[in-house]
Amino acid sequence: MYKRYWDEERETMPREKRAKLILEKIKKQLHYVYHEIPFYRDLYDRAGVKPDDVVTLEDFTTKIPVVKKSMLRESQEQHHPFGNYLGANLSPIVRIHGSSGTTGKPTFYAISQKDWDHVAEVHAMCFWAAGIRPSDRVHLATHFSLFIGSWGSLIGVEKLGATAFPIGSGETDRQLNLLWHLGNTVLISTPSYCLHMLETARHQGRDTANSPLRMGIFIGEPGAGIPATKRAIGEGWGISVADCATTSEMTPWTTNCECEERTGMHVFNDAVYTEVVSKDNPNEPVPEMTSGGLVYTHLERESQPMIRFWSGDESRMTNEPCACGRTYPRLPDGVYGRLDDMLIIRGANVYPSAVQKELLEVPGTGVEFRIVLEKKGHLDHATVQVEYNPVYYNNIPAHELPQQLDALQKAAAVKLKNATGVRFDVEVLQPETLERAISKAKRVFDHR
Asked: I want to staple 305 with a disulfide (CB 3.0 to 4.6 A). Which of 177, 208, 301, 355 is the partner?
């Protein structure tokens, strides 16, 4: 019989005691980065703030400026290769990772041995909370390249004592053959690739609801916190679904992670302090359960520490107790939007994750879709292309299928209009029309 917690004293600590501990860690980090890291000293001097100005957690939110990804890119352009925020007097750098580099050149992450050991401990704690145990065999279907999510998952699984099968992503037919052959019990992947694996397994004729898997942890992109997506994965595979992750800059990135109660992601805020702030002003805190932007701070990283990193993620936070007994706050709805990914269509704000949520609630839609935006004259024109689910229409006579798909198209258009206020043209596509992602899915094609 396994213990319930990885570190019971830490995870069940009274909130007031933890808040004092967090404040002390913040003060220590502020002095470290100000005196040892030029990037932060310059940032704080320009803002007219000193470490000793922070006496309370509220001071930290209202006085300390945020760091944005664009600032990190600029720093690395000017101070090759790691920027002027690497850190001083460190133990040797033992790992170099990076962003996916969708803008061209990746942002590099340099990690010391001390920090990599810290990552292993935090990831093990969070994976344990999600439900992985040493008896599990973990199928790591993530991209082993620059993407630090894969390597962080691997080290967390190894530290926890479970068996890791780091197969990576791609070669999906082979993935599935090996998953069944080895009897792997836990899947770690992006939600998009998991759904692709599910679709492929069904085409192979497999009984997916009775696979060897018992649970999955989903990282790298929003999705597993969207109820319809979570349901599609959970029911399709017959597994328990855990949503997890912050951003790669914030490694250890597991510090937003669901426990076995599956009531939203716990925020392990004594490792990475997490704030919810105004979308328009990152120095303005918002009340509990108010939607806002997520800002993260490393409390123990010495190499490339992020202090008040503006993630661009949107969520809301609660301190309501969880039945698991952990006293960390929670993001009850997970991360449900990317403020940076928000689309403005004819003056309306639309999130791709909201479109995904609404589509998956229309009976008969498949899991693959994309949004295509164009200009027609002076106006925005929005189209959603979505595949239909062949399993749903399996027993429909061929001559009736066009009529059924026409009804699906109309139902999806009405659903999207009611939810977003934007009229989308909906195109219902044949299954397997859209390209499948082996990592993060590209959903938006903006040609305006």
From this structure: 301
CATH ID of 1-340, from 3.30.300.30, 3.40.50.12780, 3.30.1360.10, 3.10.100.10: 3.40.50.12780
What dotted CATH number matches 342-446? Answer: 3.30.300.30
Tokens 């009976």 locate to 363
Relative orientation angle of helices 401-420 and 352-360, to the nearest 10 degrees: 140
Distance CA 297, CA 252 (A): 11
CA distance 316 to 388: 33
Domain coordinates of the chain in residue numbers? 1-340, 342-446
Phi/psi at 314 (nearest 5 deg)? -120, 135
CA angle 428, 392, 406 (to 5 degrees): 35
Distance between CA atoms of residues 241 and 134, nearest Å: 18
CA–CA gap between residue 96 and residue 75 (Å, rounded): 17
39-87: pLDDT as tens digits: 999 999 999 999 999 999 999 999 999 999 999 999 999 999 999 999 9
Q: Give the span between the Cα atoms of 213 and 138, in whole angstroms.
A: 9
Residues ≥6 apart with Cβ < 8 Å to 400: none
Question: Whole-angstrom Cα distance, residue 365 to residue 16?
Answer: 47
Which element (helix H / strand E) includes 360? helix 352-360
CA distance 188 to 179: 12
Residue of higher predicted confidence among 169 and 222: 169
Place of tokens 């006579």: 397
Query: Would you tell me how many other CB atoms lie within 10 Å of the CB of residue 49?
Result: 17
What's the pLDDT tens digit per position in 175-214?
999 999 999 999 999 888 998 899 899 989 999 999 999 9
Torsion of CA 186, 189, 194, 197, to 10 degrees: -80
pTM, 2 dp: 0.84
Tokens read off for 418: 């009611």
Q: Give the up-direction half-sphere exposure of residue 199: CA atoms within 13 A in the CB hemisphere.
A: 22
Which is nearest to 150 in space by CA: 253, 250, 10, 268?
253
Positive/negative CA dihedral, 197, 199, 204, 208: positive
**Distance in angstroms (rounded) separating the CA atoms of residues 371 and 385:** 6
